[in-house]
């Protein structure tokens, strides 16, 4: 009826085994991993609350079958790109994270085999391996997930125990993604312990604002560190219309140039291009959780219509009526098909 397939590109799931590990961390902690206040706030709520919404979210996260597909049908979603929910394996010790990444990839691959017309999936890796000097293990799992399991990208659930992807120990994984020609999806995490407290005390540490603060900063760190000069063909995807960065482009360019000229910060070095150029060349923006026509049209204008694509943010923001709001974007038929289907098909090399 619409003339396009609605492909939703930031749709979370979680193996029950991972949620059980989360319960153990909340109850007992892990002597090998620092305490994470953001994790305790977020997952203490979802796994501890008796309210209906968090219980429904947890139930939907673990369903990769009939229940999820029924929700998709009710909302008019034809296809989901599955990704491990935040913080994924990032709060685990490296050996446990490695085991859980393998289990997660195998589970997602089975869901895709069971429902190839409804699902594709992003790979999970143990990013901690890179911090431990064992980036080859993360690269090997990414290679297995893409080449053998057919996955279409890799999820990065933002900081890894307070360390960000501008850290060069992670760069072998980014290089592997570039060579495999699959995008890295930079998904929010709760702010790390060095920045979470003033957000948490005001109730702002989660999706209402803390995610945007944390992930917008992370994306900008990636840009200003020179990642895209080192890996010019690396493709990065970010949700929530870019965590506000598209609204800041002129200011970012201005003060980046000023700080480079002043030599004020050792980490702030000259780049081959302006920061905004990388945000237009190397980054794609999904509408997850941002079914706001004015915002979508603005971001399309400033980064390019070929960079903005549809996502729902299932199950955290499962609102079937928001699909209608985006169906009603002031776009012609060809542009709307690109927004819902064409860009995602090319970006993730989808074949269904």
Automatic annotation (TrEMBL):
Record bears the keyword ATP-binding: no
Top-rank lineage group of the source organism: Bacteria
Sequence ranges assigned to domain Amidohydrolase-related in this UniProt record: 70-350
This protein's UniProt keywords: Lyase
TM segment ranges: none
Alphabetized Pfam families for the sequence: Amidohydro_2
Keyword set includes Lyase: yes
Protein name per the record: Amidohydrolase family protein
Naturally occurring in which organism (per UniProt): Pseudonocardia zijingensis
């Amino acid at each position: 009826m619409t003339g396009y397939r609605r492909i939703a590109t930031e749709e979370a799931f979680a193996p029950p085994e991972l949620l059980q590990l989360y319960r153990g961390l909340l109850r007992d902690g892990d002597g090998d991993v620092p305490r994470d206040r953001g994790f305790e706030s977020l997952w203490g709520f979802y796994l501890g609350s008796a309210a209906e919404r968090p219980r429904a979210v947890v139930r939907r996260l673990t369903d990769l079958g009939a229940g999820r597909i029924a929700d998709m049908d009710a909302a008019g979603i034809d296809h989901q790109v599955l990704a491990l929910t935040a913080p994924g394996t990032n709060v685990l010790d490296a050996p446990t994270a490695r085991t859980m990444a393998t289990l997660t990839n195998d589970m997602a691959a089975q869901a895709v085999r069971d429902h190839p017309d409804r699902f594709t999936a992003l790979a999970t890796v143990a990013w901690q391996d890179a911090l431990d000097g064992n980036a080859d293990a993360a690269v090997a799992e990414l290679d297995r997930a893409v080449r053998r399991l057919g996955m279409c990208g890799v999820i990065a659930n933002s900081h890894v125990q307070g360390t960000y992807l501008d850290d060069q120990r992670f760069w072998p994984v980014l290089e592997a993604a570039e060579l495999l020609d699959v995008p890295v999806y930079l998904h929010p995490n709760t702010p790390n312990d060095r920045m979470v407290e003033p957000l948490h005390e005001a109730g702002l540490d989660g999706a209402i604002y803390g995610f945007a603060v944390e992930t917008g900063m992370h994306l900008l760190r990636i840009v200003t560190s020179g990642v895209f000069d080192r890996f010019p063909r690396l493709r990065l995807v970010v949700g929530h219309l870019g965590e506000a960065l598209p609204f800041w482009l002129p200011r970012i360019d201005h003060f980046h140039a000023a700080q480079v000229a002043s030599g004020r910060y050792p980490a702030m070095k000259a780049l081959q291009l302006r920061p905004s150029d990388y945000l237009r060349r190397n980054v794609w923006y999904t509408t997850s959780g941002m079914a706001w026509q004015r915002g979508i049209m603005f971001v399309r204008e400033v980064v390019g219509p070929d960079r903005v694509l549809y996502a729902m943010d299932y199950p955290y923001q499962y609102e079937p009526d928001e699909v209608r709001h985006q169906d009603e974007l002031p776009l012609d038929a060809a542009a709307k098909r690109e927004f819902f289907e064409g860009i995602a098909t090319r970006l993730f090399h989808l074949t269904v």
